Amino acid sequence: MGELMNKKKIFTWIVILLVIGLVGYRIYNSFFVKKEEVIQKNIVSVEETKEIDIIKSSPVSAKIVPKEEIGVIPMAQGQITSINVKMGDRVSSGSVLLTIDSTQQGTMVNKAKEGYVSASNVFDRMNRLYQEGAVSKQEFENAQTQLAIANETYTSAKDAYNNCIVTSPIDGYVTSVNRTVGDMSGGAMPAVTIADVSSLTIDVNVAESVVAKIKEGDIVSFKVGTLGDKTYQGKVEAISPAPVSKGVTYPVKIKVLDETGEVKAGMFAEINIKSVEKSKALVVPTSAVVIKKGETKVAVLGKNNKVKFKVVKTGIDADKYMEIKEGLTLGEKVIVQGQEYVVDDEEVLVK
Fold it and tell me: Of 105, 144, 253, 308, which is most buried, counting CB atoms within 10 Å of its CB?
C-alpha cells in the first residue's frame, strides 16, 4: 500500500514538472527569442518613358450621302399608265421613268393649236392691212397681242402634254419607286427617287478647335460600323468659312475615297479628323498619371525598387498615352499599375 502511494506521488511530480517546463519554454520564447518579421511587399507593373509621334483625332459621326439625290415629282396630274423602272435600275438623264394618261392634255394641245393657227392668220391679215393703211395701229396691236396669248397657251399645253412622260433628270440609280400603275400622280411624295452614286460624300459639322487644324485636300480616315474594323479614307473637299446658323460648328464636306465599292450611301461613318500632331513627344501610358493632393504625379521606380512620386506637367492626351512636358526624362521606369497602393520610399516587387 505504501509502495503504491509513492508511485502516485512520483507521477504527480512528473506531471507538475512537465507543465512548469512547458510554461517556462513559452515565456522564454516570448521574451528572449527574437521572431523574424515577414513584410508583404506591394506588386506593381512598370513601363519606361519613351518618345513617340502623337496624332490626336477628333471622332465625328455622319451619314454617307450620294453626290446628288433627286426626288422626281410628276408635274402633270392624272392616272399613271406605266412605270418603266424598278429599285436598283441604272438610268441616264432623259430615261423614261413613268407615263401618265395624256388624253386630257392631248385635247388641250389640239384646241390650243387651233387657237394659235387662227390667231396667226388674223395677225397676218391685220399686218397686211396695217401696212396698206386700211386698219388702225390699235387694231394691229390687238391682233399682235392675241397672237402672243395664243402662242403662250399653245406652248403651255404642249409642255403639259410632254410632262405626262416623266424622265430622269440625272444619271444614277433608282433608289425608290413610290407609285404603282393606276395610282394618281399627285402628291408631295416623290414618285421615283434617283441617286448619283458615282461619288459619295460625308457632310459633317466640326468644332471651332478642329476646323482650325484642317484644310482642303487633307486626307482623313473613317470606319463604318457595319463593315467591321476596316479603315477607309476620305478627302476634305470643302470647309465652310462660317459656322452653321445659330451654331458654333463648321460644315465640312468629305469625299469618300473607296475603290472597293464596299462603302455605300446611307451607311454611317465615324470619321477621325486629325486635330493635334506632335513628333517625338515624351510620353507615359495614361494609366501612369495620378492626382495626389491636387497635384499631377507619376510614380517612378528608383534604386532597390523604391518608389518616388514626381510632380509632372502634362500635355496632349492621346488616349493610350499622355505627353509629359516637365518632370520626367527619357527611359525612366514608371508604375502603370498598383501605384494607388504605394507611398514614397516604399520598396515594391515588379511583376
Answer: 105
